Protein backbone atom coordinates (compact mmCIF):
# COMPACT_ATOMS: atom_id res chain seq x y z
CA UNK A 1 0.00 0.00 0.00
CA UNK A 2 1.38 3.38 -1.00
CA UNK A 3 0.04 6.31 1.00
CA UNK A 4 0.60 9.93 1.94
CA UNK A 5 1.79 11.02 5.35
CA UNK A 6 -0.02 13.81 7.28
CA UNK A 7 2.31 16.37 5.62
CA UNK A 8 1.08 15.27 2.19
CA UNK A 9 4.29 13.54 1.07
CA UNK A 10 3.83 10.52 -1.19
CA UNK A 11 6.52 7.85 -1.79
CA UNK A 12 8.50 8.08 -5.02
CA UNK A 13 9.27 4.59 -6.36
CA UNK A 14 11.41 3.87 -9.40
CA UNK A 15 9.33 1.94 -11.92
CA UNK A 16 11.95 -0.84 -12.06
CA UNK A 17 11.56 -1.56 -8.31
CA UNK A 18 9.28 -4.26 -6.95
CA UNK A 19 7.11 -3.51 -3.92
CA UNK A 20 5.13 -6.48 -2.60
CA UNK A 21 1.39 -5.69 -2.40
CA UNK A 22 1.40 -6.38 1.36
CA UNK A 23 4.12 -3.77 2.06
CA UNK A 24 3.24 -0.30 3.35
CA UNK A 25 5.22 2.73 2.17
CA UNK A 26 4.10 5.98 3.71
CA UNK A 27 5.31 9.53 3.22
CA UNK A 28 8.65 10.98 2.18
CA UNK A 29 10.20 7.73 0.91
CA UNK A 30 12.42 7.40 -2.17
CA UNK A 31 12.99 3.92 -3.63
CA UNK A 32 15.76 3.48 -6.22
CA UNK A 33 16.09 1.30 -9.31
CA UNK A 34 15.80 -2.48 -9.05
CA UNK A 35 14.99 -2.42 -5.33
CA UNK A 36 13.15 -5.43 -3.87
CA UNK A 37 10.71 -4.66 -1.05
CA UNK A 38 9.33 -7.90 0.34
CA UNK A 39 6.09 -8.95 2.00
CA UNK A 40 4.88 -7.09 5.10
CA UNK A 41 7.61 -4.44 5.02
CA UNK A 42 6.71 -1.10 6.60
CA UNK A 43 8.63 2.02 5.53
CA UNK A 44 7.13 5.07 7.19
CA UNK A 45 8.40 8.66 6.91
CA UNK A 46 5.78 10.66 8.75
CA UNK A 47 7.21 12.30 11.86
CA UNK A 48 8.45 15.89 11.64
CA UNK A 49 11.21 17.86 13.31
CA UNK A 50 10.32 20.69 15.70
CA UNK A 51 10.36 23.11 12.75
CA UNK A 52 7.78 21.00 10.84
CA UNK A 53 10.22 19.60 8.26
CA UNK A 54 11.37 16.04 7.78
CA UNK A 55 14.24 14.31 6.04
CA UNK A 56 13.45 11.43 3.68
CA UNK A 57 13.93 7.71 3.90
CA UNK A 58 16.03 6.73 0.89
CA UNK A 59 16.51 3.16 -0.37
CA UNK A 60 19.44 2.98 -2.80
CA UNK A 61 19.42 1.17 -6.13
CA UNK A 62 19.71 -2.63 -6.20
CA UNK A 63 19.09 -3.00 -2.47
CA UNK A 64 16.65 -5.42 -0.90
CA UNK A 65 14.37 -4.90 2.07
CA UNK A 66 13.21 -8.37 3.07
CA UNK A 67 10.04 -9.73 4.68
CA UNK A 68 8.77 -7.95 7.78
CA UNK A 69 11.43 -5.20 7.93
CA UNK A 70 10.41 -1.91 9.57
CA UNK A 71 12.12 1.34 8.58
CA UNK A 72 11.06 4.49 10.45
CA UNK A 73 12.63 7.66 11.80
CA UNK A 74 12.32 9.53 15.05
CA UNK A 75 11.38 13.19 14.74
CA UNK A 76 11.90 13.43 10.99
CA UNK A 77 15.53 12.28 10.97
CA UNK A 78 17.10 10.97 7.78
CA UNK A 79 17.40 7.27 6.95
CA UNK A 80 19.57 6.18 4.03
CA UNK A 81 20.09 2.62 2.86
CA UNK A 82 22.93 2.57 0.32
CA UNK A 83 23.14 0.69 -2.96
CA UNK A 84 23.37 -3.12 -3.19
CA UNK A 85 22.59 -3.45 0.54
CA UNK A 86 20.52 -6.22 2.12
CA UNK A 87 18.26 -5.69 5.12
CA UNK A 88 17.23 -9.20 6.15
CA UNK A 89 13.93 -10.49 7.52
CA UNK A 90 12.30 -8.69 10.47
CA UNK A 91 15.11 -6.19 11.03
CA UNK A 92 14.39 -2.68 12.28
CA UNK A 93 16.19 0.34 10.89
CA UNK A 94 15.22 3.35 12.98
CA UNK A 95 16.53 6.78 12.12
CA UNK A 96 18.39 8.79 12.21
CA UNK A 97 20.48 6.12 10.52
CA UNK A 98 22.79 5.74 7.53
CA UNK A 99 23.62 2.33 6.06
CA UNK A 100 26.36 2.33 3.43
CA UNK A 101 26.69 0.50 0.13
CA UNK A 102 26.96 -3.31 -0.03
CA UNK A 103 26.04 -3.71 3.65
CA UNK A 104 24.38 -6.85 5.01
CA UNK A 105 22.10 -6.55 8.05
CA UNK A 106 21.07 -9.97 9.40
CA UNK A 107 17.71 -11.28 10.61
CA UNK A 108 16.06 -9.51 13.57
CA UNK A 109 18.81 -6.91 13.93
CA UNK A 110 18.13 -3.38 15.14
CA UNK A 111 19.97 -0.28 13.94
CA UNK A 112 19.26 3.08 15.59
CA UNK A 113 21.02 6.45 15.54
CA UNK A 114 24.09 5.05 13.83
CA UNK A 115 26.20 5.05 10.69
CA UNK A 116 27.22 1.71 9.15
CA UNK A 117 30.10 1.97 6.68
CA UNK A 118 30.29 0.43 3.23
CA UNK A 119 30.62 -3.37 3.00
CA UNK A 120 30.07 -3.88 6.73
CA UNK A 121 28.22 -6.95 7.97
CA UNK A 122 25.85 -6.90 10.94
CA UNK A 123 24.93 -10.50 11.64
CA UNK A 124 21.65 -11.82 13.01
CA UNK A 125 19.95 -10.60 16.20
CA UNK A 126 22.40 -7.77 16.80
CA UNK A 127 21.77 -4.27 18.12
CA UNK A 128 23.79 -1.33 16.80
CA UNK A 129 23.10 2.16 18.15
CA UNK A 130 24.87 5.40 18.87
CA UNK A 131 28.03 4.62 16.91
CA UNK A 132 29.88 4.75 13.59
CA UNK A 133 30.65 1.26 12.28
CA UNK A 134 33.70 1.56 9.99
CA UNK A 135 33.66 0.12 6.47
CA UNK A 136 34.23 -3.64 6.08
CA UNK A 137 33.64 -4.46 9.73
CA UNK A 138 31.87 -7.61 10.89
CA UNK A 139 29.56 -7.53 13.88
CA UNK A 140 28.89 -11.12 15.00
CA UNK A 141 25.41 -12.48 15.70
CA UNK A 142 23.77 -11.43 18.98
CA UNK A 143 26.24 -8.58 19.56
CA UNK A 144 25.08 -5.36 21.20
CA UNK A 145 27.01 -2.23 20.25
CA UNK A 146 26.03 0.98 22.07
CA UNK A 147 29.02 3.26 21.44
CA UNK A 148 32.13 3.70 19.35
CA UNK A 149 34.12 2.28 22.29
CA UNK A 150 32.23 -1.03 21.95
CA UNK A 151 33.56 -1.28 18.37
CA UNK A 152 37.16 -1.81 19.54
CA UNK A 153 36.58 -5.57 19.77
CA UNK A 154 35.10 -5.92 16.26
CA UNK A 155 37.06 -7.67 13.51
CA UNK A 156 37.14 -6.72 9.83
CA UNK A 157 34.92 -8.52 7.34
CA UNK A 158 36.47 -11.63 5.84
CA UNK A 159 36.10 -12.38 2.12
CA UNK A 160 33.59 -15.14 2.98
CA UNK A 161 31.18 -12.64 4.57
CA UNK A 162 31.67 -10.17 1.72
CA UNK A 163 30.89 -12.92 -0.83
CA UNK A 164 27.77 -13.92 1.12
CA UNK A 165 26.53 -10.32 1.19
CA UNK A 166 27.12 -9.95 -2.56
CA UNK A 167 25.24 -13.19 -3.26
CA UNK A 168 22.22 -12.08 -1.22
CA UNK A 169 22.11 -8.74 -3.06
CA UNK A 170 22.25 -10.36 -6.51
CA UNK A 171 19.68 -13.02 -5.61
CA UNK A 172 17.20 -10.31 -4.67
CA UNK A 173 17.90 -8.28 -7.81
CA UNK A 174 16.89 -11.38 -9.77
CA UNK A 175 13.71 -11.61 -7.67
CA UNK A 176 12.78 -8.06 -8.71
CA UNK A 177 12.74 -9.11 -12.36
CA UNK A 178 10.75 -12.28 -11.66
CA UNK A 179 8.11 -10.55 -9.55
CA UNK A 180 7.79 -7.66 -12.00
CA UNK A 181 6.91 -10.22 -14.72
CA UNK A 182 4.24 -11.77 -12.47
CA UNK A 183 2.46 -8.48 -11.75
CA UNK A 184 0.30 -8.92 -14.84
CA UNK A 185 -0.92 -12.33 -13.73
CA UNK A 186 -3.12 -11.12 -10.87
TrEMBL record:
SUPFAM superfamilies: Trimeric LpxA-like enzymes. The keyword Repeat applies. The keyword Transport does not apply. One of its GO terms (molecular function) is acyltransferase activity. It comes from the Bacteria. Pfam families: Hexapep. InterPro entries: Gamma-CA, Hexapep, Hexapep_transf_CS, Trimer_LpxA-like_sf. Keywords: Acyltransferase, Repeat, Transferase. PROSITE patterns: HEXAPEP_TRANSFERASES. PANTHER family: CARBON DIOXIDE CONCENTRATING MECHANISM PROTEIN CCMM (PTHR43360), CARBOXYSOME ASSEMBLY PROTEIN CCMM (PTHR43360:SF1). This is Carbonate dehydratase. It comes from Parasulfuritortus cantonensis.
